[in-house]
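Marked as duplicate of an earlier ticket. Keeping the data here for the record.
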Amino acid sequence: MAPEVVRHERYSKKADVFSYSMVLYELLTHEVPFADRPALQAVVAVALNEQRPLLPDGTPLPLRQLLTSCWARDAAGDYSCLLLVAAGCCWLLLVAAD
């Protein structure tokens, strides 16, 4: 869940961009973000402490940049959902091919 949603703030499509990037993270790593802690601690980490999950070593730079920019507080709204879907799918296919 996007930080602004957790904090009960007004939100826009940026929340969808953040959530989509978390799905990409799960597809890349085969792990749930912050699976090492209880759900409430994960929510606090993301919404209040602005923590993001660590990307594995070897994550291709363009995919790393895509994910981290989607997680950024101000940058997430710069992407259209269609562009994100296309970019994410392309990079996940390339990662899966390796």
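See parent ticket for discussion. The chain has a mean pLDDT of 81.
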